[in-house]
Design brief:
Shape of chain C: globular
Chains: A mainly alpha (457), B alpha+beta (181), C alpha/beta (913)
Distance between the termini of chain A: 14 Å
Number of strands of chain A: 0
CATH superfamily of chain A: Formate dehydrogenase/DMSO reductase domain
Shape of chain A: globular
CATH topology of chain A: Formate dehydrogenase/DMSO reductase fold
Strand order of the largest sheet of chain C: 5-4-16-15-14-6-7
Largest interface: A-B, 59 and 63 residues
Strand content of chain A: under 5%
Number of strands of chain C: 39
CATH class of chain A: Mainly Alpha
Radius of gyration of chain A: 23 Å
Low-confidence stretches of chain C: 1-8, 23-40
Strand content of chain C: 15-25%
Structural class of chain C: alpha/beta
CATH architecture of chain A: Up-down Bundle
Largest sheet of chain A: none
Low-confidence stretches of chain A: 1-10
Order of helices and strands of chain A: HHHHHHHHHHHHHHH
Oligomer: heterotrimer
Helix content of chain A: 55-70%
Radius of gyration of chain C: 27 Å
Distance between the termini of chain C: 66 Å
Structural class of chain A: mainly alpha
Helix content of chain C: 25-40%
């Protein structure tokens, strides 16, 4: 373990710690779930999260009773925290799919030990995200009017509206991510079935494993569909945040109506996603002593990817400024200057600091050598990406075309409680997941264990 | 001596993939056809040794995808142009550029789902019970052991010959698996 | 962590009120109105469900009548329109007439006769009063009657009888916004009272000395129309008039001025000089000099002299007999009353209308001396401050509930015809007087008709009566105009106040007048012109003065005027005179309804009887506290959006196309989309910025027509007001005297509507006639449409704003317009319900809708004829012609949304040299 703290420059850490075999890996991962003992930290965090979830339920119940008015939204700023958080959560989801699908297609062996919980993170993040578009409706109980279904009035969704695209993109994304994740789980569930001591536990995992018996013929079909799913998920993940960005670009609002948005949003999504993966991975490997399976190599690779996507985001900021100037449009230029110097200027400054300046620290190998330093940067990026969405949504709306209708937006206590509530929901779902399911893919780890490139010294 | 249930086949246990592959090679040379290998993870080369051809699951994905695309396009075109035409912001009824996205999403959705269900169908899953589960040591197939099975319905199968053949490959063990425990 | 939400509490309170009021109604042994008015068991033959009926009537305001045509649905009056045959209306109305419908159904109006707060009956009152009256017959000393200004012939006749019956009785009149200065001025100049009427359409040059004649004069609607007609111009058309205004508080009249001179009211007297005099001289007989009520008598008499010298009298200025039946200088009349009260010479005081305890000058201390009066009877709409101090309170019958009559500014008399039986146990003023005459059961109908029978004895009375009632005016009942009365020597003007001291100006509030409308939520939430302030009044002062005093918006300042003081938040307004503060009357009620209560600050509490309009040398002190003021508009700069195109008449003559040069407008062909064909009709609208005077009438007409809810102060604070039509106000130039532009902003009904494109559920779509339609019950409330609307004219029901639960309000709703529920987007529909009604009639008669057959609510109410609506598919329609004019332009045309609502550029006519 001491060696890991050395800066990467002097030494390339392995993907799997020394002396790991098929049985030790199986043992290590499955024992976390199958052992009757639960660490106190787990109870502490899950308990706290549960309280938060109760707060979320209360906030949503009150929202349904009183109406959207309890939030800070108004005319002209008709979209507030709800949409900001929605975009933020969706973005976070993207890293999971990227790791599990895109890195799989690129034969990146190092993905194996992080893809499982990254995918889980995707599912839970998308779940949190999905809450908002429903809750922010004026009449949430009619959300299903956005879904095509036969009805006596012959009414259909309005196919030209990006919100309808959202419905399709996000539900598809959720479904495919879930299926992908579950298929990946089947062999491991079989492992748990076969290791479980308790008959009841054995039964549950047995049902979930669908009678998987590791037949070569099964593996044959299995691997094919796995790769094909990865191939489908890759364009899907790109499309999802593209569609989310279209919610803004399809409008005519200065600050929203920009062609750079789709790539800019996708990059930002992956950026925030990796930040969240790191935020989860670093404490977890400490908590469950997984340093042998989630090694510094993983942490550092993700840090590098975060830096790379961060630079794309930085580039997008520059381009935004450039197009504002180059457009020659009074509206665009005003909106941009208003972001810098308007009433929300201080938030923009904070955004630049947390999202652009702080991550530059990752250029240094020494920083990349310290888990805590990387964790700090990751947290800063989480904040930064949230601020970015706030700036995009609010500052474009609050001063648009006619000065007569300009206004200000201030979140209410209900905006904040709902936001914190979804964070709690995310944490709780995640902790339930690591208690009940393998947070690292057992069979995929065995797949790479004796590959030469894994054991670089 | 109580009546014994039907024999399913003989099961050989190995502790590394290479031995398993060797075993498969020998068995095929010996002309066995009703054979299968069981491993904790997909082992490269096993499929080739068993002589399995390309998986059909890809066709499920292909046709699922096509079906999704057609559904998406038809649904939008029919509803916007025929069923309930409305002037929306002066845009043409058939605003096909706006329709593309949903077509795409449905392609992915249908393709992915039909692929997954196709895979389960081809594998005959879910299958709660299988004779192999009667063999206690088979539990380790999902952990750290590699198994090879010659089924009783193989034309070349005969109790002594096949048993000795498997023993000859120096496995960790050979077990006779029956339909009933 | 429950939310602090006064708005909710207020709404809850209202519904509770409603419930309790309904109960009160039952205890009053009165069935609720719908059954009484339209017995559906035996429906009156003229009432057809769904078919509106229209009745002519008139609304008295400060005594003066405004002719109305009121729409009645199934027996419920729901909307007032101007009576085209009425000289003071000409088909237009002001904000008050529009909002009066809400007052009619106000659940907080006094509902039963009360004795010292306890529910009682009319008979109870009569039996209590009779013995005292008997004594007064013998010796009338001690009976006093206090009224507001009166023009009603019937009331005057009854009063004459009362004064005859009770020899010692005396009649006092007081009205907080009175015409004393004008009266005194006339007395100075002519030795007698006269009324002045103006012919603005004949005036080329108008000089206003602190006169807000577009808002405060009894003839304001006619004046506004005549004035506006002289602002319209097309190349080679009529010549524009030129308006000079000197004023302390910026008013809409000042905003229309070609030359505006902000100065303290006490300095205005020295305003007529130099170029203005020359201009007036140059157009002798074609000018008007007009002084505001706030100016002292000397200025009025100076103005009389000027108009005579300039030969305007008989051309543009006319003198007539006073319209009021008994014109007095009311402060004096009130003084006498209070003196007698102090001296214990008043035994019984009957105040008919008004609210003396609240709105009399503080230094006369009406309420303190009221104790010495043994019997105090008050007759008013609300259980107000005076009612609380009276022994008996008699609810007043509203003008839509009982018969009456009143005269317009020119004396034209109208019969006030009720459209509904009294909702509550109320009495008309004439019924009260008749009770004093010993006939408490005589109905207002008998009384009024009886009076006119006397006037118009003869066989043809019935025809005369029905005809007058039907038309809403009594033919040739104007007061006699006087040939120029003899001038007396006008007294020289006294010197001016020292510039150093700060003057305090009291003005009637543009929304709630003298406070009589304080319990009308529509008017409370109506953004006041220029300040855009709602639900409050404030101490308005200029930027420079604010800096001197070191105060900012919302800083609470203490204003001390001859010993009395109030604390009131400051509101800085560009264009206000320096060294002056203006505060509007009518706020700070302690009673008379929960809407009125605790809103704003009571300016009457520092108003002095000697200087009711302008108090010199007040002391101002910062308290350090702050008070939140809510304005519905925060930014008044134009920000190079080119939303207001304007030029001077001279520039326009040189370059008529100036309005099209500012922004790049894509050519009609410049689109990728195939056009949708219009079937027969293509509805469109133009708004003329040259004539729009920003009077707010359209805003409230729209609210009345379209069931638009009120949201309350804290919702407005979060810019959630619901007005479908708002008057955008922009200011440009020097903060001491900026140029002001009014721009009515409503749904532009874009042909390429951005809002429709983004709605996920087809809740907003385009009709074949080019109307951008909202399908309320399909709306799920994503609010995306509002985000994508560049004009931000869409309104969202963040809460359940509609008051379903108040029975009275349910009667007010326009049955043709959906009442929107929570979570639904709404906006201007071009009054589609009116279009459809016209369509039905047209279809019945198998023809197309005729030009002028569809009139939108905002267009109908507009005194300046600034809004024109019609079918632009018909090249001969008025709107098509206007759209063909060079001044016609679209706001934000560069966005290529192709609005159907376009604007005619604003022209001003400043003195070139």
């Amino acid at each position: 373990m001491m060696r890991e703290e050395l800066p990467e420059a002097t030494y390339t850490p392995p993907l799997v710690g020394p002396g790991q075999t098929y049985s030790t890996i199986t043992e290590k991962i499955s024992s976390i779930v199958l052992s009757p003992h639960t660490p106190l930290e787990w109870f502490a965090v899950a308990g706290l999260a549960f309280t938060g979830v109760m707060m979320l339920f209360y906030s949503l119940a009150y929202l349904l009773v009183r109406g959207i008015g309890i939030w800070g939204v108004n005319i002209p700023i008709a979209w507030g925290f709800a949409i900001v958080n929605f975009v933020w959560w969706i973005g976070i989801g993207h890293a999971g799919t990227l790791i599990s699908a895109i890195l799989l297609l690129m034969h990146q062996a190092w993905r194996q030990s992080i893809n499982r919980f990254a995918e889980a993170m995707t599912l839970f993040a998308v779940t949190c995200a999905g809450l908002y578009p429903l809750a922010h409706l004026g009449r949430p109980w009619f959300f299903y009017w956005l879904i095509p279904y036969p009805n006596t009035m012959d009414l259909w969704p309005q196919w030209r509206s990006p919100l309808v695209w959202d419905v399709f993109a996000i539900s598809t994304y959720l479904t495919i991510s879930f299926v992908f994740w579950y298929i990946g789980l089947i062999p491991d569930l079989a492992t748990f079935r076969d290791r479980a001591q308790n008959r009841f536990v054995r039964l549950i995992y047995g049902i979930l494993a669908m009678g998987w018996r590791g037949s070569a013929r099964h593996w044959h079909h299995y691997e094919t569909v796995f790769v094909l799913l990865a191939g489908l998920a890759t364009p899907l993940v790109v499309s999802v945040h593209t569609v989310v960005s279209l919610d803004f670009t399809i409008s005519i609002l200065p600050g929203w109506h920009a062609t750079i948005f789709p790539p800019y949003f996708v990059a930002g999504a992956i950026y925030s996603g990796f930040a969240m993966v790191l935020t989860l991975a670093i404490p977890l490997r400490k908590l469950y002593h997984l340093e042998d399976l989630i090694t510094m190599r993983h942490i550092q690779n993700m840090a590098k990817l975060m830096l790379a996507t961060g630079m794309i985001v930085a580039y997008s900021y520059v381009i935004e400024a450039f197009t504002a100037w180059y457009s020659g449009s009074n509206y665009e230029q005003f909106t941009f200057m208003n972001r810098l110097l308007g009433p929300y200027g201080w938030l923009y400054a904070l955004l630049i600091l947390t999202n652009l300046i702080v991550p530059q620290a990752l250029w240094s190998a020494r920083v990349r050598g310290k888990t805590l330093a990387i964790l700090a940067v990751a947290l800063s990026v989480n904040v930064g990406m949230w601020l970015e969405r706030f700036i995009i949504v609010i500052t474009s709306l609050h001063r648009d075309f006619l000065p007569s209708s300009w206004g200000m937006y201030y979140p209410t206590i209900w905006d904040i409680s709902t936001f914190l509530g979804t964070i709690a929901l995310f944490v709780m779902l995640f902790f339930i997941f690591i208690r009940l399911l393998p947070m690292i893919s057992v069979f995929e780890m065995k797949q790479i264990i004796d590959k030469p490139e894994v054991r670089v010294e | 001596m109580k009546t014994r249930s039907l024999l399913y086949g003989f099961l050989a246990e190995f502790d590394n993939p290479d031995a398993l592959k060797e075993c498969i090679r020998q068995a095929r040379k010996a002309g066995f056809r009703r054979i299968d290998a069981y491993t904790p993870f997909p082992v490269e080369g096993v499929a080739e040794e068993l002589g399995l051809q390309h998986s059909k699951v890809r066709y499920f994905v292909l046709f699922g995808g096509i079906a999704g695309a057609l559904t998406g396009w038809f649904m939008q075109y029919y509803s916007a142009v025929f069923d309930y035409p409305l002037n929306i912001g002066g845009r043409p009824l058939n605003s096909w550029p706006s329709f593309v996205i949903i077509v795409f999403e449905l392609t992915i959705l249908f393709g992915g789902l039909s692929g997954v269900f196709g895979m389960l169908a081809l594998n005959g899953l879910p299958k709660p019970h299988h004779p192999l589960f009667n063999e206690p040591s088979f539990d380790r197939v999902t952990q750290d052991r590699f198994f090879f099975c010659i089924e009783a319905r193989d034309p070349q199968f005969d109790r002594e010959g096949t048993w000795n053949f498997l023993q000859g490959l120096k496995p960790e063990g050979v077990y006779a698996v029956h339909d009933l425990p | 962590m429950l939310p602090k939400d006064d708005e909710l509490n207020r709404r809850d309170f209202l519904s509770l009120m409603a419930a309790s009021m309904a109960l009160a109604g039952i205890t009053g042994c009165k069935a609720t109105p719908p059954e009484k008015i339209v017995p559906y068991v035996r429906p009156p033959e003229e009432v057809l469900p769904g078919v509106p009926l229209y009745f002519a009537t008139a609304m008295p305001l400060s005594g003066y009548a405004m002719g109305l045509i009121v729409e009645s649905r199934e027996g419920r009056p729901i909307k007032a329109e101007g009576n085209p045959d009425h000289p003071a209306s000409l088909g237009a109305t002001d904000v008050f007439a529009q909002a009066s419908l809400l007052t009619l159904y106000d659940p907080e109006r006094a509902q039963t006769v009360t004795q010292t707060g306890q529910i009682n009956t009319w008979d109870g009152f009569i039996t209590d009063l009779r013995p005292k009256l008997e004594r007064f017959r013998v010796n009338g000393e001690g009976l006093r009657i206090l009224t507001e200004s009166v023009t009603s012939p019937t009331f005057a006749d009854l009063m004459k009888q009362v004064l005859a019956a009770y020899p010692g009785a005396r009649w006092h009149q007081y009205e907080p916004v009175n015409r004393d200065n004008a009266r005194a001025g006339a007395r100075m100049t002519f030795g007698r009272y006269v009324d002045v009427q103006y012919r603005f359409e004949k005036a080329d040059v108008i000089a206003s000395l602190d006169s807000d004649f577009l808002t405060t004069e009894p003839g304001k609607l006619r004046y506004a129309r005549e004035f506006a007609r002289r602002r319209k111009t097309s190349p080679g058309g009529t010549t524009m008039n030129r308006l000079f205004v000197a004023e302390s508080m910026p008013t809409i009249t000042g905003a229309m001025a070609d030359h505006r001179f902000p100065m303290r009211s006490s300095d205005v007297r020295s305003f007529l000089s130099g170029s203005i005099l020359e201009a007036l001289e140059r157009s002798r007989g074609r000018g008007i000099v007009i002084a505001g009520e706030s100016q002292p008598p000397e200025v009025h008499s100076l103005v009389h002299e000027m108009n005579q010298r300039l030969g305007n009298v008989g051309q543009t200025v006319f003198y007539s007999e006073p319209v009021e039946v008994n014109p007095v200088e009311q402060i004096q009349s009130l003084r006498e009353l209070i003196e007698d009260m102090k001296g214990g010479r008043v035994e019984t005081l009957i105040s008919i209308g008004g609210n003396p305890v609240y709105n009399t000058p503080a230094d006369l201390e009406f309420s303190t001396h009221a104790d010495k009066v043994q019997l105090r009877v008050h007759h008013s709409l609300y259980y107000d401050e005076t009612a609380a101090l009276s022994h008996w309170h008699i609810p007043e019958t509203y003008y839509l509930e009982g018969w009456g009559d009143a005269r317009a500014y020119d004396g034209t008399a109208s019969i006030i015809q009720p459209l509904i039986n009294p909702l509550y146990q109320s009495k008309c003023s004439c019924e009260l007087l008749s009770a004093l005459l010993g006939d408490p059961t005589r109905s207002s109908y008998e009384i009024v008709q009886g009076y006119w029978k006397k006037q118009h004895a003869g066989a043809d009375f019935d025809d005369f009566w029905t005809e007058s009632v039907r038309k809403g005016v009594i033919p040739n009942s104007q007061v006699a105009t006087l040939t120029t009365p003899a001038l007396r020597a006008t007294p020289p003007l006294q010197g001016r106040e020292s510039v150093s001291s700060i003057e305090l100006n009291f003005r009637p509030d543009p929304s709630i007048w003298d406070g009589r409308w304080a319990n009308n939520a529509w008017l409370q939430e109506l953004p006041k012109p220029l300040t855009k302030l709602v639900w409050d009044n404030a101490a308005i002062l200029s930027p420079a003065t604010a800096t001197n005093l070191g105060v900012h918006n919302e800083d609470v300042i203490e204003i001390r005027n001859n010993g009395r003081s109030i604390e009131c938040p400051a509101l800085v307004l560009a264009g206000h005179a320096d060294q002056a503060i203006t505060i509007h009357l009518g706020y700070g009620h302690t009673r008379s309804g929960n809407i009125a209560k605790q809103k704003g600050f009571d300016a009457y509490s520092i108003r002095g009887a000697d200087s009711p309009w302008t108090a010199a040398g007040v002391e101002v002190r910062k308290t350090g506290r702050r008070y939140p003021l809510v304005t519905t508009q925060q930014h008044f700069e134009l920000e190079q959006r080119h939303q207001v195109q304007r030029a001077t008449a001279a520039e326009f003559a040189k370059n008529p196309n100036f309005a099209h040069e500012a922004v790049h407008k894509p050519a009609p062909g410049e689109t990728m989309y195939p056009p949708y064909a219009n079937i027969d009709y293509a509805w469109g609208m133009t708004v003329d910025l040259s004539t729009c005077i920003g009077c707010n009438a359209c805003v409230i007409a729209c609210q009345a027509e379209n069931n638009i809810p009120v949201v309350g102060k804290d919702q407005c604070a979060n810019s959630r007001e619901m007005h479908w039509l708002r008057i955008d106000t922009y200011m440009e130039g020097d903060a001491r005297n900026p140029e002001v532009f009014f721009e009515p902003m409503l749904c532009q009904h874009c042909e390429l509507a951005p809002c429709e494109l983004v709605c996920p559920v087809e809740a907003t779509s385009h009709s074949s006639e080019g109307i951008n339609e909202m399908t309320y019950n399909r709306c799920v409330g994503t609010r995306y449409c509002s985000n994508n609307c560049p004009y931000k004219v869409r309104r969202f029901n963040f809460y359940e704003y509609a008051k379903w639960d108040v029975p009275q309000f349910r009667m007010l709703y326009n049955p043709d317009v959906t009442v929107r529920s929570r979570g639904v987007m709404e906006k201007c529909t071009y009054c589609v319900q009116r279009i459809n009604r016209a369509r039905i009639t047209a279809k019945d008669e198998d023809r197309l809708i005729r030009e002028g057959e569809v009139v939108t609510a905002c267009q109908q109410v507009c005194p300046a004829e600034a809004i024109v609506f019609g079918n632009i598919a018909d090249p001969n329609s008025a709107v098509s012609k206007l759209k063909a004019e060079p001044r016609n332009y679209a706001v934000l045309a560069d966005l290529n949304t192709r609005p159907r609502t376009t604007y005619l550029a604003k022209l001003t006519n400043p003195n070139s040299e």
